[in-house]
Amino acid sequence: MRYASRESSNSTDDYMRTYNVMRVGDIAFEGHTSNEFAFGRFVENDLGDGIVSHVFVVLRPLPGRRYDLAFWKEAIHDEFLMKRILARSTKRSTMMHEIVVSDFLKEVFAVPSLSEQQKIGRFFSTLDSLIAAAERQEGLLKQKKQAYLQLMFPQEGEAQPRLRFSGFNGQWQQRQLGEVAEIVGGGTPDSSNADYWDGDIDWYIPSEIGESRIAQASTRKITREGLNHSSARLLPAGSILFTSRASIGLMAFISHPSATNQGFQSLIPNGEVDPDFLYALGPRISRYAKKHAAGSTFIEISGSSLAKAPLRIPKLPEQRLIGQFFSTFDKIISAVEQQIESLQMAKAAYLQRMFV
Protein backbone atom coordinates (compact mmCIF):
# COMPACT_ATOMS: atom_id res chain seq x y z
CA MET A 1 0.00 0.00 0.00
CA ARG A 2 1.37 3.41 -0.88
CA TYR A 3 0.60 5.12 2.41
CA ALA A 4 2.51 6.71 5.31
CA SER A 5 1.44 7.18 8.94
CA ARG A 6 -0.58 9.98 10.49
CA GLU A 7 -0.14 13.71 11.20
CA SER A 8 -1.17 14.92 14.67
CA SER A 9 -3.18 18.07 15.34
CA ASN A 10 -1.14 21.08 16.44
CA SER A 11 -3.93 22.45 18.66
CA THR A 12 -2.97 24.17 21.93
CA ASP A 13 -5.68 22.17 23.70
CA ASP A 14 -4.19 19.03 25.27
CA TYR A 15 -7.11 16.79 24.33
CA MET A 16 -7.45 18.19 20.81
CA ARG A 17 -3.78 17.43 20.22
CA THR A 18 -4.71 13.75 20.36
CA TYR A 19 -6.83 14.26 17.24
CA ASN A 20 -5.44 13.39 13.81
CA VAL A 21 -5.30 15.78 10.90
CA MET A 22 -7.11 14.33 7.90
CA ARG A 23 -6.34 15.94 4.56
CA VAL A 24 -7.96 15.31 1.18
CA GLY A 25 -6.87 11.89 -0.03
CA ASP A 26 -6.10 10.54 3.45
CA ILE A 27 -7.76 7.31 4.52
CA ALA A 28 -9.09 6.56 8.01
CA PHE A 29 -9.61 3.12 9.51
CA GLU A 30 -12.69 2.50 11.66
CA GLY A 31 -12.56 -0.84 13.45
CA HIS A 32 -16.19 -1.62 14.25
CA THR A 33 -17.36 -4.78 12.53
CA SER A 34 -20.73 -5.34 10.87
CA ASN A 35 -22.47 -7.70 8.49
CA GLU A 36 -21.03 -5.59 5.69
CA PHE A 37 -17.46 -5.24 7.01
CA ALA A 38 -15.95 -8.24 8.81
CA PHE A 39 -12.78 -6.54 10.10
CA GLY A 40 -13.68 -2.83 10.01
CA ARG A 41 -13.41 -0.47 7.08
CA PHE A 42 -11.44 2.34 5.46
CA VAL A 43 -12.99 5.63 4.40
CA GLU A 44 -11.26 8.13 2.13
CA ASN A 45 -11.52 11.86 2.72
CA ASP A 46 -12.68 13.47 -0.52
CA LEU A 47 -14.43 16.43 1.14
CA GLY A 48 -11.71 18.71 2.57
CA ASP A 49 -9.04 19.05 5.24
CA GLY A 50 -10.12 18.51 8.83
CA ILE A 51 -9.44 16.56 12.02
CA VAL A 52 -10.77 13.25 13.32
CA SER A 53 -10.68 11.51 16.68
CA HIS A 54 -7.60 9.53 17.68
CA VAL A 55 -9.87 6.47 17.61
CA PHE A 56 -9.42 6.51 13.83
CA VAL A 57 -6.04 5.57 12.38
CA VAL A 58 -5.25 8.00 9.54
CA LEU A 59 -2.90 7.13 6.69
CA ARG A 60 -1.70 9.43 3.90
CA PRO A 61 -0.57 8.67 0.35
CA LEU A 62 3.20 8.95 -0.09
CA PRO A 63 4.25 12.24 -1.72
CA GLY A 64 5.06 12.08 -5.39
CA ARG A 65 2.88 9.04 -6.03
CA ARG A 66 0.29 9.61 -8.75
CA TYR A 67 -3.10 8.15 -8.01
CA ASP A 68 -6.75 8.85 -8.75
CA LEU A 69 -8.82 9.91 -5.74
CA ALA A 70 -12.08 8.38 -7.03
CA PHE A 71 -10.39 5.05 -7.82
CA TRP A 72 -8.83 4.71 -4.36
CA LYS A 73 -12.07 5.77 -2.67
CA GLU A 74 -13.75 2.65 -4.07
CA ALA A 75 -10.71 0.36 -3.72
CA ILE A 76 -10.11 0.89 0.01
CA HIS A 77 -13.85 0.69 0.79
CA ASP A 78 -14.42 -2.53 -1.17
CA GLU A 79 -14.96 -5.41 1.26
CA PHE A 80 -14.33 -8.02 -1.45
CA LEU A 81 -10.85 -6.57 -1.96
CA MET A 82 -9.98 -5.42 1.56
CA LYS A 83 -11.33 -8.32 3.64
CA ARG A 84 -8.35 -10.59 3.02
CA ILE A 85 -5.92 -7.71 3.59
CA LEU A 86 -7.52 -6.64 6.86
CA ALA A 87 -7.74 -10.26 8.01
CA ARG A 88 -3.93 -10.30 7.97
CA SER A 89 -3.32 -6.77 9.26
CA THR A 90 -5.81 -6.27 12.12
CA LYS A 91 -6.15 -7.68 15.60
CA ARG A 92 -9.21 -8.09 17.79
CA SER A 93 -9.47 -5.76 20.80
CA THR A 94 -12.15 -5.30 23.46
CA MET A 95 -14.73 -3.49 21.36
CA MET A 96 -13.41 -3.47 17.79
CA HIS A 97 -10.59 -4.47 15.49
CA GLU A 98 -7.34 -2.53 15.64
CA ILE A 99 -5.21 -2.12 12.56
CA VAL A 100 -1.55 -3.06 12.83
CA VAL A 101 -0.15 -0.28 10.67
CA SER A 102 3.24 -1.90 10.12
CA ASP A 103 1.53 -5.05 8.80
CA PHE A 104 -0.98 -3.13 6.72
CA LEU A 105 1.70 -1.06 4.98
CA LYS A 106 3.43 -4.25 3.84
CA GLU A 107 0.32 -5.41 2.00
CA VAL A 108 0.24 -5.20 -1.78
CA PHE A 109 -2.40 -5.56 -4.46
CA ALA A 110 -2.57 -4.96 -8.19
CA VAL A 111 -3.03 -1.35 -9.30
CA PRO A 112 -3.68 -0.27 -12.90
CA SER A 113 -2.09 2.67 -14.68
CA LEU A 114 -3.15 6.18 -13.73
CA SER A 115 -5.24 6.55 -16.90
CA GLU A 116 -7.12 3.33 -16.13
CA GLN A 117 -7.56 4.38 -12.51
CA GLN A 118 -9.15 7.61 -13.74
CA LYS A 119 -11.55 5.79 -16.03
CA ILE A 120 -12.57 3.38 -13.28
CA GLY A 121 -12.90 6.27 -10.82
CA ARG A 122 -15.14 8.24 -13.18
CA PHE A 123 -17.28 5.16 -13.79
CA PHE A 124 -17.95 4.61 -10.09
CA SER A 125 -18.38 8.33 -9.45
CA THR A 126 -21.14 8.34 -12.07
CA LEU A 127 -22.78 5.32 -10.41
CA ASP A 128 -22.57 7.03 -7.01
CA SER A 129 -24.16 10.17 -8.47
CA LEU A 130 -27.04 8.14 -9.89
CA ILE A 131 -27.57 6.39 -6.54
CA ALA A 132 -27.42 9.70 -4.64
CA ALA A 133 -29.90 11.32 -7.04
CA ALA A 134 -32.33 8.42 -6.65
CA GLU A 135 -31.97 8.54 -2.85
CA ARG A 136 -32.73 12.28 -2.89
CA GLN A 137 -35.79 11.61 -5.02
CA GLU A 138 -36.91 8.92 -2.58
CA GLY A 139 -36.50 11.31 0.35
CA LEU A 140 -38.46 14.08 -1.37
CA LEU A 141 -41.30 11.71 -2.30
CA LYS A 142 -41.57 10.48 1.29
CA GLN A 143 -41.62 14.09 2.56
CA LYS A 144 -44.39 14.96 0.10
CA LYS A 145 -46.38 11.91 1.13
CA GLN A 146 -46.15 12.90 4.79
CA ALA A 147 -47.29 16.43 3.92
CA TYR A 148 -50.31 15.10 2.02
CA LEU A 149 -51.18 12.76 4.88
CA GLN A 150 -51.32 15.78 7.17
CA LEU A 151 -53.46 17.78 4.74
CA MET A 152 -55.81 15.11 3.42
CA PHE A 153 -56.86 13.64 6.78
CA PRO A 154 -58.52 15.63 9.61
CA GLN A 155 -56.18 16.67 12.39
CA GLU A 156 -56.98 15.92 16.02
CA GLY A 157 -60.07 17.83 17.08
CA GLU A 158 -61.11 18.51 13.46
CA ALA A 159 -63.94 16.87 11.51
CA GLN A 160 -62.74 17.46 7.95
CA PRO A 161 -59.39 17.72 6.16
CA ARG A 162 -57.77 20.91 4.93
CA LEU A 163 -57.23 19.58 1.40
CA ARG A 164 -59.89 17.66 -0.52
CA PHE A 165 -60.68 16.48 -4.02
CA SER A 166 -63.15 18.75 -5.79
CA GLY A 167 -66.80 17.91 -5.35
CA PHE A 168 -66.54 16.76 -1.75
CA ASN A 169 -67.49 18.69 1.36
CA GLY A 170 -68.98 18.19 4.80
CA GLN A 171 -67.68 16.52 7.93
CA TRP A 172 -66.19 13.05 8.08
CA GLN A 173 -67.91 10.47 10.29
CA GLN A 174 -66.41 9.44 13.62
CA ARG A 175 -66.01 5.65 13.70
CA GLN A 176 -63.99 3.00 15.51
CA LEU A 177 -61.64 0.64 13.69
CA GLY A 178 -63.61 -2.40 14.84
CA GLU A 179 -66.72 -1.01 13.09
CA VAL A 180 -65.11 -0.96 9.63
CA ALA A 181 -62.77 -3.97 9.81
CA GLU A 182 -62.67 -7.38 11.42
CA ILE A 183 -59.58 -7.69 13.62
CA VAL A 184 -58.00 -11.14 13.57
CA GLY A 185 -55.17 -12.49 15.70
CA GLY A 186 -52.77 -15.25 14.75
CA GLY A 187 -51.29 -18.43 16.15
CA THR A 188 -48.46 -20.92 15.93
CA PRO A 189 -48.90 -24.63 15.18
CA ASP A 190 -46.99 -27.12 17.32
CA SER A 191 -43.39 -26.75 16.14
CA SER A 192 -42.60 -30.38 17.00
CA ASN A 193 -45.25 -31.77 14.66
CA ALA A 194 -43.75 -32.10 11.17
CA ASP A 195 -47.23 -32.56 9.66
CA TYR A 196 -48.01 -28.94 10.47
CA TRP A 197 -45.05 -27.38 8.63
CA ASP A 198 -43.58 -26.94 5.14
CA GLY A 199 -46.97 -26.70 3.51
CA ASP A 200 -48.20 -24.13 0.99
CA ILE A 201 -49.79 -21.54 3.33
CA ASP A 202 -47.71 -18.43 4.00
CA TRP A 203 -47.27 -17.92 7.77
CA TYR A 204 -45.87 -14.51 8.66
CA ILE A 205 -43.95 -13.32 11.71
CA PRO A 206 -43.60 -9.59 12.58
CA SER A 207 -39.93 -9.34 11.50
CA GLU A 208 -40.99 -10.12 7.92
CA ILE A 209 -43.05 -6.94 7.68
CA GLY A 210 -41.16 -3.81 6.66
CA GLU A 211 -41.91 -0.74 4.58
CA SER A 212 -43.17 -2.66 1.55
CA ARG A 213 -46.86 -2.13 0.83
CA ILE A 214 -47.37 -5.78 -0.13
CA ALA A 215 -45.95 -8.64 1.94
CA GLN A 216 -43.65 -10.98 0.07
CA ALA A 217 -43.69 -14.73 0.62
CA SER A 218 -43.08 -15.78 4.23
CA THR A 219 -39.97 -17.71 5.20
CA ARG A 220 -41.90 -20.52 6.88
CA LYS A 221 -45.11 -22.07 5.61
CA ILE A 222 -47.72 -24.23 7.31
CA THR A 223 -50.04 -26.97 6.13
CA ARG A 224 -53.81 -26.97 6.21
CA GLU A 225 -53.59 -29.40 9.12
CA GLY A 226 -51.30 -27.02 11.00
CA LEU A 227 -53.75 -24.20 10.39
CA ASN A 228 -56.66 -26.27 11.70
CA HIS A 229 -54.78 -27.29 14.83
CA SER A 230 -53.75 -23.80 15.94
CA SER A 231 -55.34 -20.45 16.66
CA ALA A 232 -54.05 -19.12 13.33
CA ARG A 233 -56.69 -18.11 10.81
CA LEU A 234 -56.54 -18.06 7.05
CA LEU A 235 -56.81 -14.39 6.10
CA PRO A 236 -58.34 -13.61 2.70
CA ALA A 237 -56.37 -11.87 -0.03
CA GLY A 238 -56.56 -8.10 0.44
CA SER A 239 -56.33 -8.31 4.23
CA ILE A 240 -53.92 -5.91 5.93
CA LEU A 241 -51.35 -7.44 8.27
CA PHE A 242 -50.82 -5.31 11.38
CA THR A 243 -48.00 -6.13 13.80
CA SER A 244 -49.18 -5.99 17.41
CA ARG A 245 -45.93 -6.72 19.28
CA ALA A 246 -42.16 -6.22 18.83
CA SER A 247 -42.35 -3.42 16.24
CA ILE A 248 -45.96 -2.38 16.75
CA GLY A 249 -47.89 -0.89 13.84
CA LEU A 250 -46.14 -2.22 10.73
CA MET A 251 -48.62 -2.90 7.95
CA ALA A 252 -48.72 -4.77 4.64
CA PHE A 253 -51.34 -6.15 2.28
CA ILE A 254 -51.37 -9.85 1.45
CA SER A 255 -52.00 -10.75 -2.18
CA HIS A 256 -53.20 -14.30 -1.47
CA PRO A 257 -54.73 -16.14 1.52
CA SER A 258 -52.18 -16.32 4.35
CA ALA A 259 -51.82 -16.79 8.10
CA THR A 260 -49.73 -15.17 10.84
CA ASN A 261 -48.33 -15.97 14.25
CA GLN A 262 -49.72 -14.32 17.38
CA GLY A 263 -47.69 -11.16 16.83
CA PHE A 264 -50.44 -9.69 14.63
CA GLN A 265 -53.89 -8.15 14.87
CA SER A 266 -54.68 -8.16 11.17
CA LEU A 267 -57.43 -6.14 9.52
CA ILE A 268 -60.08 -7.49 7.14
CA PRO A 269 -61.87 -4.40 5.76
CA ASN A 270 -65.65 -4.65 5.46
CA GLY A 271 -67.81 -2.92 2.88
CA GLU A 272 -67.82 0.37 4.78
CA VAL A 273 -64.16 1.19 4.18
CA ASP A 274 -61.93 1.18 1.13
CA PRO A 275 -58.86 -1.03 1.78
CA ASP A 276 -56.39 1.47 0.28
CA PHE A 277 -57.94 4.25 2.36
CA LEU A 278 -57.62 2.13 5.50
CA TYR A 279 -53.97 1.40 4.69
CA ALA A 280 -53.36 5.15 4.28
CA LEU A 281 -54.70 5.58 7.83
CA GLY A 282 -51.87 3.31 8.99
CA PRO A 283 -49.71 5.97 10.69
CA ARG A 284 -52.67 7.11 12.82
CA ILE A 285 -53.68 3.57 13.73
CA SER A 286 -50.05 2.79 14.58
CA ARG A 287 -49.75 5.80 16.90
CA TYR A 288 -52.92 4.73 18.70
CA ALA A 289 -51.68 1.13 19.04
CA LYS A 290 -48.32 2.19 20.48
CA LYS A 291 -50.01 4.52 22.95
CA HIS A 292 -52.44 1.85 24.19
CA ALA A 293 -50.13 -1.18 24.12
CA ALA A 294 -49.60 -2.92 27.45
CA GLY A 295 -48.09 -6.05 28.95
CA SER A 296 -45.70 -7.33 31.60
CA THR A 297 -43.57 -9.78 29.58
CA PHE A 298 -43.65 -7.72 26.38
CA ILE A 299 -45.67 -4.76 25.17
CA GLU A 300 -48.47 -5.50 22.70
CA ILE A 301 -51.85 -4.20 21.61
CA SER A 302 -54.82 -6.57 21.96
CA GLY A 303 -57.48 -6.97 19.32
CA SER A 304 -60.16 -5.54 21.63
CA SER A 305 -58.05 -2.45 22.35
CA LEU A 306 -57.16 -1.95 18.68
CA ALA A 307 -60.84 -2.18 17.75
CA LYS A 308 -61.47 1.00 19.75
CA ALA A 309 -59.04 3.10 17.67
CA PRO A 310 -60.97 6.25 16.65
CA LEU A 311 -61.10 7.10 12.96
CA ARG A 312 -62.58 9.90 10.86
CA ILE A 313 -64.00 8.46 7.63
CA PRO A 314 -65.68 10.13 4.62
CA LYS A 315 -68.15 8.48 2.26
CA LEU A 316 -66.88 5.66 0.06
CA PRO A 317 -66.42 7.67 -3.20
CA GLU A 318 -64.04 10.08 -1.42
CA GLN A 319 -62.34 7.19 0.39
CA ARG A 320 -61.59 5.50 -2.92
CA LEU A 321 -60.04 8.61 -4.44
CA ILE A 322 -57.86 9.16 -1.37
CA GLY A 323 -56.90 5.49 -1.27
CA GLN A 324 -55.96 5.49 -4.97
CA PHE A 325 -53.94 8.68 -4.52
CA PHE A 326 -51.77 7.24 -1.74
CA SER A 327 -51.59 3.83 -3.44
CA THR A 328 -50.11 5.54 -6.51
CA PHE A 329 -47.72 7.49 -4.28
CA ASP A 330 -46.52 4.26 -2.65
CA LYS A 331 -45.99 2.61 -6.04
CA ILE A 332 -43.86 5.53 -7.22
CA ILE A 333 -41.78 5.40 -4.04
CA SER A 334 -41.42 1.63 -4.43
CA ALA A 335 -40.22 2.05 -8.03
CA VAL A 336 -37.54 4.51 -6.91
CA GLU A 337 -36.49 2.15 -4.10
CA GLN A 338 -36.15 -0.66 -6.63
CA GLN A 339 -34.07 1.61 -8.84
CA ILE A 340 -31.75 2.34 -5.89
CA GLU A 341 -31.46 -1.36 -5.09
CA SER A 342 -30.68 -2.20 -8.73
CA LEU A 343 -27.98 0.49 -8.91
CA GLN A 344 -26.43 -0.68 -5.64
CA MET A 345 -26.41 -4.29 -6.84
CA ALA A 346 -24.85 -3.23 -10.13
CA LYS A 347 -22.14 -1.30 -8.29
CA ALA A 348 -21.37 -4.28 -6.04
CA ALA A 349 -21.09 -6.56 -9.07
CA TYR A 350 -18.79 -4.15 -10.92
CA LEU A 351 -16.60 -3.74 -7.83
CA GLN A 352 -15.99 -7.49 -7.78
CA ARG A 353 -15.23 -7.60 -11.49
CA MET A 354 -13.11 -4.46 -11.82
CA PHE A 355 -10.85 -4.89 -8.78
CA VAL A 356 -8.50 -7.82 -8.27
From TrEMBL:
An example Gene Ontology biological process: DNA restriction-modification system
Matching CDD domains: RMtype1_S_EcoJA69PI-TRD1-CR1_like (cd17273)
Superkingdom of this protein's organism: Bacteria
Keywords attached to this entry: DNA-binding, Restriction system
GO molecular function: DNA binding
Stored Pfam families: Methylase_S (PF01420)
Family matches, as InterPro entries: Restrct_endonuc_typeI_TRD (IPR000055), Restrct_endonuc_typeI_TRD_sf (IPR044946), Type-I_RS_S_subunit (IPR052021)
Type I restriction modification DNA specificity domain ranges (all copies): 171-341
UniProt similarity note: Belongs to the type-I restriction system S methylase family.
Entry protein name: Restriction modification system DNA specificity subunit
